[in-house]
Amino acid sequence: MNYWLMKSEPDAFSIDDLKRKKQEAWDGVRNYQARNFMRDGMRPGDRVFFYHSNCAVPGIVGIAEVATDAYPDPSQFDPKSHYFDPASTRDKPRWMLVEVKFVKKLKRTISLYELKSDPALEGMPLVRKGNRLSVMPVEAADWKYILAME
DNA sequence: GCCAACGTTGGC
DNA sequence: GCCAACGTTGGC
Questions:
Q1: Of A48, A59, A117, A145, most Cβ neighbours within 10 A?
Q2: Residue A76 neighbours by CB under 8 Å, 6+ apart
Q3: Per-residue pLDDT for A130 more than 90?
Q4: Chain segment A12-40, per-residue pLDDT in tens
C-alpha cells in the first residue's frame, strides 16, 4: 500500500464536501507529473492525506482512500467544462483521474507551517520551496509521523 | 492582492 | 531544441 497527498482548494472542494458526498472523482488535474502519480502509482486501498490549499490555514485536514484505478477524466472532452482540453481525444485521452472516498476528518488541521517547522519532515516534497504539485507521494515513515501529530 | 516558482507553449 | 513569453499555483 502506498501513501499520497492531494491538494484541494476548500472553496472549490473541501474535506466536508467529501464527507457529505462519500466518494468523488478527482477531476481537473492538468499536470503531467500529478497525472502520472494517479495513473501509475495509485491503487485502490492506498491512503491519501487530504490537504487544503490556497486558504487561511493551509494544511492536512483529513484522510481519504483511493477507490478506483485511474481512468480518463471526462471533463477533458466537455467543451463547456473549465477543464476542457481540445488537444485530447477519446482514443488517446491525455488526462486521467481516480476516485477517492472519505475516511475521516482529522480532529485538527495539521498546518503547513507545522510541517515546515519540523526538521523530521524536511525531505517531504510538500514543504520544499516552490512546490506546486497537487498530487504527490508520501513516505510511509512520514505518514506515520504526521498521523502522530494529530 | 502580490509575486515567486514553476510548467507549458510556440516562434525561430 | 532553445528559450522568451505567458499562464497557473499557492503561500503569504
A1: A48
A2: A83, A84, A85, A88, A93, A94, A95
A3: no
A4: 999 999 999 999 999 999 999 999 999 99
Q: How far apart are CA A49 and CA A62, in angstroms?
A: 6
Question: Which residue is associated with the grid cell 498546518?
Answer: A111
Q: Is the CB of A127 under 7 A from strand C?
A: no
Give the span between the Cα atoms of A83 and A52, in whole angstroms. 20
Q: Given the C-alpha cell 486558504, which residue does it identify?
A: A55
In angstroms, the CA A8 to CA A15 distance is: 9
| Gap from A109 CA to C11 C1', Å | 16
| CB-based contact A76:A99 (threshold 8 Å) | no
Distance A132 CA to B11 C1' (A): 28
* CATH H-level, domain A3-147: superfamily: ph1033 like domains (3.10.590.10)
Amino acid identity, position A13: F
- Taking the CB of residue A100, how many other CB atoms lie within 10 A of it? 24
Give the H or E element holding residue A101.
strand A99-111
